[in-house]
Amino acid sequence: MEQELRTGGGGGGLRAHSSVCFSCALIDGPRIQQLLLHCAAALESNDVTLAQQAMWVLNNIASSQGDPNQRLTSWLLRALVARACRLCGPAGATQAAPAPRERAMSVTELAEYVDLTPWHRFGFTASNGAILRAVAGSAAVHVVDLSVTRCMQWPTLIDMMSKRPGGPPALRITVPSARPAVPPLLGVPDEELGVRLANFAKSKGVQLEFNVVSKGPSTSPTSSTKNKATLCQDLASVLSDPPSLALRDGEALVVNCQSWIRHVAPGSRDAFLDAVRALNPCLVTVTDEDADLDSPSLASRIEGCFNFHWILFDALDTSAPRDSPRRVEHEAAVGRKIESVVGADDADGAERSESGARLAERMQRNGFAGVAFDEEAAGEVRRLLSEHATGWGVKREEDMLVLTWKGHGAVYTGAWAPS
């Protein structure tokens, strides 16, 4: 029976765990994954006893200060306990520990957070290269910015535009006030960000107009689950209302989606892309995590979380000490994603990512054609990665660029135009 438990075989081994001294070998990834799948299967079949027993074993493995597998397991276990408590009631599982309190960062802290790994800047760099190429020769450019990183992408684009032969274009950036209430959180209003960006642009000789479109519910850190669930409708109503975006003749329109589409309900994504296409942009850039985490099966989502989110936990071991505030915030942000993927239902505004390959198929079905990245844009990405750990790399997948860690796909960026 001890061998059956260590190899992840059969529910019987788990049921007899109280008489078993599990081996330290159980800490390796495949065995942890088997235990997680046992727990998921038990929850899906409402077998509270088996779920509790699997959680007991996982609790002896998980450690917030351990290796990448142990740290990831601690967040997966938290999400499983929260789901068990909700589905089965407090009697069904030990109450989950309170989640770490989310803290709004300063602009400087957000910059440090983004700089720790290339997870976000990869998309910024690749997308900016595609945007510059698409608007070459345009006297006026309008970017509708749909992102969760609060305009961190744009200083670099402004700087690059300032060096354009013949002079920079007039630049307009529009952001919606409604956005997913997910980390990283910033304790600065959009209007203040606009003032800072405008001052920076002025110092570079670029004329910048910054607009905030207010529609729908607030998405502050205290936003409700109901607000998250209605985000897609609110956003679509903004995009389908050209007067609110103040579209102008003669402007090259770009729609920039950074870590955004996974927060739109899967059943509403085609309608979202229809609204984007109706604006007739010259370019749409999409950056997101290269993982399929939208299966209706809890076990499949847990397996996907374990295989994908291991990437950042492993990469962070090379980036900063474990007590680094920015590192702690990165790992907590992953934990927040796991709670949404494992613990929340679609009706709750859950986060459901889909891979770059599936996104490409969706874009093509909705009337977009891929725009390949030129070698200059790919070269800028490689220069960015040279500033980070050697495990990071980039590969091409059809028209997209994909950030990799030790060969595993992490984040994709694609550029699209109405076909």
From TrEMBL:
The keyword Transcription regulation applies. The keyword Heme does not apply. Keywords: Transcription, Transcription regulation. A motif (VHIID) lies at residues 141-145. It comes from Panicum hallii. PANTHER family: OSJNBA0084A10.13 PROTEIN-RELATED. Belongs to the GRAS family. This is Uncharacterized protein. Transmembrane segments: none annotated.
